[in-house]
Amino acid sequence: MGLKIGIVGATGAVGQKMIEVILERNIDVDNFRLFASKNSAGKIVKLRDKDMTVELLTEEVMKEKYDYLLFAAGGSISEKFAPIAADAGNIVIDNSSHFRMMENIPLVIPEVNSHVLRGYRGIIANPNCSTTQMIVAIAPIYKKYGIKRIVVSTYQAVSGSGYKAIEELENQIKDKDYPNKVYTRKIAGNCIPHIDVFNENGFTKEELKMVYETHKILDDESIEINPTAVRIPVFYGHSESVYLELKEEVNIKEIRSLLEKAEGIVLEDEPSENKYPTPLQAENTDYTYVGRLRKDIYDPKGLSLWVVADNLRKGAATNAVQIIEAIETIKLEG
Ligand code: 2RA
User: Which SUPFAM superfamilies does the record cross-reference, listed alphabetically (predicted)?
Assistant: First the structure.
């Protein structure tokens, strides 16, 4: 029998991707339910050739039985409705940041730490997009060499801020006087070193997510992480310049081979042929692309790399769907 899956926030940018990815990856679904708050309830969403009406999200519908409920409706909706669904015995995969750092909530990237899902039922947190792609890329290196310090700068697409930001960039490209509403500055032709709110230590919440989520997923609080998160005028696909200070001397040949063999990674690194990943090519794919691998000129333990992934797919929807796949595999293994 197929699965019963509900999507909360089904009309948003991530919710729509979740539907797309579930259908594309041929997850065996018998019963699909789509939910949203009253502004979007009643809308029609196409599932292959079938029209489906988006239902109103209520406490009652969350108490029904589902195999999986995927949440992509923001932190306050998750805070209120995810515990109701979990108390009713459901597995909830939540894309908001609300539960990520709670001690008993698994924060999962299936390629890296799916073992924490074994025997677990309840709320599972999907990491932030900028954290996910960085960890997919560095985990194989971390396992072999250990990491002392990470210095990372992100180049994040506007789709990370939802449909309104996509529209804002589209409109500003056509009309240079179109006002900025989503961001503090014009995004077209610009880059803005400010994602989410500033903390009193000068880092933004987006940057601190990269620190604390990385510690939790790799189960290693000793890694020193220094992020700068920047919004750029790209529609889909986040890029990251990552510098790693490893615990042992870098062997580029060995690291290339580790990345080539790693699950979920495409190594695209041939400078003599101008081969390196860019967000346009990552768009609508489920991989994390790595290029520009190079050993530090000064520090034999230093390594630079460039990491690109589709933020709405591997950074959100795909990772959530891969969590379903990982749990289904664990069930089959018994
Ligand atoms: C962004 N990280 O790109 C966010 C989305 N979760 O703004």
Answer: Glyceraldehyde-3-phosphate dehydrogenase-like, C-terminal domain (SSF55347), NAD(P)-binding Rossmann-fold domains (SSF51735)
